[in-house]
Write a structure and sequence with these properties.
Layout lengths: L10 E3 L6 H15 L8 E3 L10 E4 L14 E4 L11
Parallel strand pairs: 1-2, 3-4
């Protein structure tokens, strides 16, 4: 629906530190299984989400930090049981 509305949707994810070899493969596998092969070109894997350009970042991490102290996107926290009592 969102792509039909003219929005360009990308998936931005960060690999777990010191687990790059397995984590990256698992992220590609998850996208392939749950979203389909056509989503793989839209996958951005980076340790620093602050340098990725966009209008909105929906993330389960309440505080996203990195090289850019003022990213251009607005951060929306995706609610999960482990981040319920954490402020962003």
């Amino acid at each position: 629906e969102m792509t039909e509305a003219g929005l360009h949707i990308l998936l931005c994810t960060a690999p777990l530190p010191f687990q790059y070899e397995t984590c990256v493969a698992e992220k590609f596998g998850w996208v392939r299984k749950h979203l389909g092969e056509e989503w793989l070109p839209r996958l951005i894997i980076t340790r620093d989400k602050t340098v990725v350009r966009g209008r909105i970042l929906i993330d389960d991490k309440p505080k996203v930090s990195g090289a850019c102290s003022n990213p251009e996107w607005d951060h929306i926290i995706f609610s999960q049981p482990y981040n319920q009592n954490v402020e962003g």
